[in-house]
Amino acid sequence: MAAAPQVPFDRIHDPVLRRLGEQVAAGNRLTAADGLALYRSADLTGLGVLADAVNRAKNGDVVTFASNQHINPTNICVLRKTCVFCGYARLPKEEGAYRYTLDQVLGEAAHAADGMTREFHIVGGLDMKAGLAYYEEMFRALKANFPHVHIKGLTAVEIAHIARIEKMSWHDVLVALKAAGLDTMPGGGAETFSAAVRDRIADKKLAGAEYIGVHRTAHELGIRTNCTMLYGHVETLEDRMEHLQALRDLQDETGGFLAYIPLAYHPDDNELGKELGRQGTATTGWDDLRQLAVGRLFLDNFQHVKSHWIMVTPFLSQVALHYGVNDLEGTVVREKIYHAVGAHTPQGMSLAALLTLIRGAGKVPAERDSFYRILRTSFDAEPVAAGVA
Ligand code: V47
Ligand code: SF4
Predict the structure, then answer these.
(1) Side-chain half-sphere of 96: how many Cα atoms within 13 Å?
(2) Cα–Cα distance between 85 and 83 in angstroms, integer?
């Protein structure tokens, strides 16, 4: 059990936050109304102080990261027209549509051949031609070729899609995929659970209660999962609290969630962004930090809160390490790969840069595996960026 948080009350100016801080320090649960009060506080620094105290009590100063590789086997998706926030999906005959063959998947995965990648994060569209056999064959081949690599694959929405096209239950699809090599599931597809918001931005997508249902089934089968929330589009703060409440309730029931990852909505290159006239205006730093901090405080039964630095920038993710975050998502590219390609890859950060970022925030970097077991905290053999103590 985590130690009681040591809250430095003198650094919290908002009396409402102080009152809630006393609740948290006493080990009392916050209600959804308390969560709303956290969101509405103008004392962002005080909110961070509180979230940091809770995080330190759970995870100390350690900040983890994993060495993973994303594989997106198909961008063909039946919800292409109704998930209006998505810029990735294509219809089967649309320009840019693709579905990898098994050889292409193995070719992408070959980057893992030198033993550095420890996790494949595999997600794609809801493709009518990517059914159970497609993924079973893929997972079996990946495990045969890269037995040391963990498979974190398929969102709840993809599991439900496979179940629908195969006329199977979620349970039976998950049992089959587990037997083929599925280890854990990512948290994508949650968006915002509120029915009104879903109607507007993700009509026809698996409902919030069904997303929770697929995760419950996975947890019952011993498949641990992550969860997410897409925020910063048309949702209200009440919608965000409804979403957090549903995540906390399932975690109370199963304990199967590994991490919570809020995802900041990006308005470029998607229909919703055009409709809202929001292009070029992503979420604000203020909102990103409070979203992470409120998650840390309300989700008192979660060990890990992850910031996705590709979405909110490495700079904000660094500051977020003082707002309740203990884990960073984003591909870590080792120096030799990094230099081999001769330039910054758009979706990777060198290990040295990541270490600089974590240490620069006064935290202790640690490489972890997919179950959050620490693999190493010493990086002496790695190249070190200038300015790292
Ligand atoms: O479900 C789609 C989001 C998610 C946009 O579990 C967008 O470890 C912002 O879930 N702006 C997929 N976000 C990514 C995801 C994820 C990422 C990293 C780690 C893990 C994990 C999961 O991306 C989708 C959707 O919510 N998304 N479009 C957009 N325009
Ligand atoms: Fe995009 Fe996923 Fe929606 Fe398909 S289901 S349109 S891939 S967000």
Answers:
(1) 7
(2) 6
- Ligand closest to Cα of 311 equals 1
Single-letter code of the amino acid located at 15? P
Which ligand is in closest contact with the Cα of 125? Answer: 2
Give the nearest ligand 2 atom to 78 CA: 4
pLDDT confidence bin for 117, thresholds 50/70/90: confident
Residue with CA nearest ligand 1 atom 23: 188
Looking at the predicted structure, is the pLDDT value of residue 280 above 90? no
Looking at the CA of residue 124, tell me the nearest atom of ligand 2: 7
Q: For domain 63-282+330-360, give the fold.
A: TIM Barrel (3.20.20)
pLDDT tens-digit series, residues 320-375: 999 999 999 877 665 443 333 333 344 677 888 899 999 999 999 999 999 999 99
Q: What is the pLDDT of residue 343?
A: 34
Between the CA of 225 and the centroid of ligand 2 the distance, in Å, is: 19
Q: How confident is the model at residue 383, as a pLDDT?
A: 46
Distance from the alpha carbon of residue 34 to the mean position of ligand 2, in angstroms: 33
Rounded CA-CA distance 342/317 in Å is: 25
Domain ranges in the chain are 9-57, 63-282+330-360
The order of strands in the sheet holding 150-153 is 68-71, 119-122, 150-153
Q: What's the rounded Cα separation, in Å, for the pair 122 and 152?
A: 6
